[in-house]
Design a protein that fits this description.
The protein is mainly β and 220 residues long. The chain is built from 1 helix and 17 strands. The model has no long low-confidence stretch (mean pLDDT 88).
């Protein structure tokens, strides 16, 4: 029961890289309860700082985001899943968020494979948006070069690169917060892409070593 529709989670060689923030409390600290189930802390897109679903109480929701379109092509040369939700139609932005996740095999033996996540906003006018990528606490996230378009993510011996393509948007690493166990929180890096736009607003590409085993999950 989180406002996390279209969230993407990622494991590399069985190790979590892109994760859910978890939940440290249910009744004891209401503000923390709301913060950890809000859209803005999950690996999805937020419009105008609003949640996809309306929180009415610790376990009570009002209008909830629903999937309004879903396409799944597991047997294609580049397997993909695409879905939209209606959570922002009730807001002043009258917007629909659509996300497509595609696995792109490496071109040849030993070539890196990649995972492409494209976020599209269908709205009457440009809207303020944020895309969040929350990493595991053991991950280290460093710029791959000048600018803010590519990042190197390391967790122990594992390494992947993350490339962000979002015209006019700013990508930056922040200190996020996750709860791996109930009642406990700890800092963890997260990449936040913020900007203004409509249509195809952000393309996030994860590049992995061809020898690595990749597992992923998209939250319905």
């Amino acid at each position: 029961a989180h406002a996390d529709t279209l969230q993407v989670l990622l494991w590399l060689d069985g190790q979590a890289m892109l994760i859910d923030p978890g939940m440290p409390t249910f009744f004891e600290i209401p503000a923390a309860r709301d913060r950890f189930r809000a859209t803005a802390v999950h690996n999805t897109l937020t419009i105008g700082g609003q949640d996809q679903s309306q929180m009415l109480g610790p376990f009570l929701w009002g209008k909830r985001a629903s999937i309004i379109d879903r396409r799944w092509e597991p047997a294609a040369a580049t397997p993909s899943i695409e879905a939209s939700h209606d959570g922002y139609l009730r807001t002043p932005f009258a917007a629909v968020h659509r996300r497509r996740v595609t696995l792109i095999p490496g071109a040849g033996a030993g070539a890196d494979e990649s995972i492409e996540v494209v976020d599209v906003i269908d709205a009457p006018a440009a809207v303020p948006f944020e895309v969040v990528w929350q990493f595991h606490p053991e991950c280290r996230v460093d710029p791959a070069g000048a600018g803010d378009s590519e990042w190197v993510v390391r967790r122990g011996r594992l390494q992947m690169r993350m490339r962000i393509e979002a015209a006019g948007a700013l990508a930056k690493v922040e200190q996020g917060e996750i709860s791996a166990r109930f009642g406990q929180t700890q800092p963890a890096p997260r990449l936040v892409v913020g900007g203004m736009g409509k249509g195809s607003v952000c393309r996030s590409v994860v590049l992995t070593d061809a020898a690595s085993e990749v597992e992923g999950k998209v939250m319905p």
